[in-house]
Specification:
heterodimer, A: mainly beta, 7-stranded mixed sheet, 4-stranded antiparallel sheet, B: 5-stranded antiparallel sheet
């Protein structure tokens, strides 16, 4: 069966520090991968999606970047964190996103101080 | 454009029915979804409906779709305290890249 792992679960980072969040999927190949952010009291904002290795699309301009170095690995990064980067980051995967929708990881709570 | 809107809060008494509403803007959406998020956790797919359907029932859950008005609702029968969570409506957008666009989520509070 397919599983998705996301880590770390919580992270407290100072302003200006770098960030690296990792997401891996097991049990499937060539998944579509997504990074979402959920700010406090707000909905889900799609940040990045990827349909293959090295293929990244950005939904919104921001302080973050994403990379997909391997088929089932998706990394969210920042060179210098801002206070506004605080939030709950969710990784998700899908086949074609239709009937199965997306399967989400358990999320990373990032607090920038 | 791509936009999904939901009311932010709903409070119901245990045992009553809950109805969570959602409107979407993309008339080409083929699938619409309801996800549930419990505190501190990721999102769990509850159910989905295909755009050529107007109703889908799954145990205590009933999804109604009014495609003309682009309105989607989720009814939870006999609401329990364990149903307290945030419920997200999402529409499937196909194109160069398939993606889900989510609403802001409706926080459902169930009280005795």
């Amino acid at each position: 069966s397919q599983t998705i792992h996301q880590w770390p679960a919580t992270l407290v980072q100072p302003v200006g520090s770098p960030l690296s969040l990792e997401c891996t999927v097991e049990g499937t190949s060539n998944p579509n991968l997504y990074w979402y952010r959920q700010a406090a009291g707000r909905g889900l904002q799609l940040l990045f999606y990827s349909i293959g290795i090295g293929q990244i699309s950005s939904e919104v301009p921001q302080n973050l970047s994403a990379s997909r170095p391997q088929d089932r690995q998706f990394i969210l990064s920042s060179k210098k964190l801002l206070l506004s980067d605080s939030g709950f980051y969710l990784c998700a995967w899908s086949r074609d996103g239709r009937t199965a929708g997306y399967t989400f990881g358990s999320g990373t709570r990032l607090t920038v101080v | 454009g791509e936009d999904v809107e939901q009311s932010l809060f709903l409070s119901v008494r245990e045992g009553d029915s809950s109805v969570i509403n959602c409107t979407y803007t993309d008339s080409s959406s083929t699938y619409l979804y309801w996800y549930k998020q419990e505190p501190g956790a990721g999102l769990q797919l509850l159910t989905y409906i295909f755009s050529n359907m107007d109703m889908k029932q799954d145990q205590r859950l009933t999804v109604l779709l009014n495609k003309k008005d682009k309105h989607l609702s989720l009814r939870i029968a006999d609401t329990q305290t364990g149903d307290s969570a945030i419920y997200f409506c999402a529409e499937f957008i196909s194109g160069g890249y398939n993606k889900l666009i989510f609403g802001a989520g409706t926080r459902l509070a169930v009280h005795p």
